[in-house]
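Researcher: I'd like a structural prediction for the single chain below. Treat it as a standalone chain; there are no partners to consider.
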Amino acid sequence: MPLRPLTLLTTLLHAYIGLRLLPALASGGMGWAWLLLAALLLSAATMPLPFVGQRRGRRRPLADGWKWLGLLSMGWFSSMFVLTLVRDAGLLLGWLLALAGGWPVDWPRVHSWSAAAVPFVATLVTLIGFFNARRVAGVVRVEVPIRDLPAGLEGFTIAQLSDIHVGPTIRRGYIQRIVEAVNSLGADMVAITGDLVDGTVAELREHVAPLAGLRARHGTFVVTGNHEYYAGAHAWIDELRRLGLRVLLNEHVVLQTRNVKGAQTDEEVLDSALVVAGVTDYTAAHFDAAHASDPEGALDGAPPLVHTRLLLAHQPRTAPAAAEAGYHLQISGHTHGGQFFPWNLFVPLQQPFTAGLHRLQEMWVYTSRGTGYWGPPKRFGAPSEITLLRLVPERP
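Model: Treating it as a single chain, here is the predicted structure.
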């Protein structure tokens, strides 16, 4: 949506919040009402700033400061709007029940206290969400049971990063802490499943640079997410390759997971190997027809004797095509687990899985809640994660 209509819409929604809360707050004294009015005016004025700061040619430190303020306002406003709707629904339901039951209710008192509760809870949730978003993501350890897993692959580990969204509020120091946490895991491979950046290479090169320090036995593999295409995917692919990361564009590699020196047959060599395939984002064809996501095509030329196949795909909705192509495990991100309530309730409208490990036909799908965050520095009810997936044999 263009910026002006979006700004008009958010301004009207701020006005709705004010009309619903300010009169009730004023009945208990004007002090809190004035404070909330000032907060709403500040929020309405600053929310567009993350999108206009650069256009006005401000120096970067000032522009970044305005973006921080606008994104914090966005997170607070989101909770304010949802809680105002919840309050209105609760008041309507309470009025209907009181009317049906003939119960006396001190409505001015209910209106006043409920109006005060909305900004209090919204601010508390925003503060908790800020702390959750800015801390280093915790490690989530997941065992994935693979049918007929070769002995050479038992215990193979994949450190997954997803949806970091390097941009206005996620910078070099944040990435360096993630790299240190991943390296401490000693994983066999690192997988970055898209939405790494929210900006151009020129803007963010120095902040992404610490990813060159990722260490794993078989290296780091990357697939594109939708945000890479918003930011210039081709330039980012070149930059990530320059950093030493392997970008998989509808293609695969074969990893040999153990020393096969002295093996007598091809079957012995390939039995302990792993096909790691990666596809472009589900929507990539909208930006570049040559990048149309192709899980089946990513296996072209894969050795048929390699029995275990892993797919890196940004969006969970790639899963049906991946299952048909014969993969054993797909690891994805994109959803952020909803990032903060109540948006997690809407993820299933677009994606088959919101977070965690699920089975689709004969294939497992793991969906990360993401390692960073998008937009507001806020996570509530959907903590960020660095995922350590471990392949184990499926038990009868």
